[in-house]
């Protein structure tokens, strides 16, 4: 599949609400969460006022002039929080664009962006059952905190 990766334009930031919903792990066979779930405060920290924080950065994947995926980082107290200096990853693709290597490339390019900005590490949270766990490991993330159903993972530069 032919795609390009670029910085997300500020006028596209409202798309992060859709990508936040897509990033929520939902088990096969379970009823889908309502889209309103993203209005919960613990999820809003990932997108509210995005672009106003000094650590906010977002890359997106584009296929046929349509934004089909995004990876964004913020220094927040989210599910993958490690400390006040470590930006936390969020990433998602629309379902029909998964499995083509786009997510891996989004992560690699964001890691390179963070490395150039001088960060020492990055973090994320992932459910242990989530197929994306292998992708994160392949990209160099390692579990540092083992919770009951999820890992907090870090990438060290």
UniProtKB/TrEMBL annotation:
PROSITE patterns for this protein: GNAT
Q: Where is the N-acetyltransferase domain?
A: 3-157
The record's listing under PANTHER family reads: L-AMINO ACID N-ACETYLTRANSFERASE
Q: What is this protein called?
A: GNAT family N-acetyltransferase
**Organism in which the protein naturally occurs:** Blautia celeris
Cite the source lineage: Bacteria, Bacillati, Bacillota, Clostridia, Lachnospirales
């Amino acid at each position: 599949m032919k795609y390009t990766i670029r910085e997300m334009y500020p006028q596209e930031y409202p798309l992060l609400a859709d990508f936040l919903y897509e990033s929520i792990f939902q088990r096969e066979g379970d009823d889908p969460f309502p889209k309103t779930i993203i209005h919960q405060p613990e999820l809003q920290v990932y997108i509210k006022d995005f672009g106003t924080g000094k650590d906010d950065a977002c890359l997106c994947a584009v296929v046929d002039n349509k934004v089909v995926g995004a990876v964004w980082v913020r220094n927040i107290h989210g599910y993958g929080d490690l400390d006040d200096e470590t930006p936390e990853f969020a990433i998602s693709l629309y379902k029909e664009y998964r499995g083509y290597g786009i997510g891996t490339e989004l992560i690699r390019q964001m890691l390179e962006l963070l490395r150039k900005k001088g960060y020492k590490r990055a973090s994320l949270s992932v459910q242990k059952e989530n197929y994306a766990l292998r992708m994160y490991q392949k990209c160099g993330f390692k579990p540092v905190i083992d919770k009951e159903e999820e890992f907090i993972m870090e990438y060290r530069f």
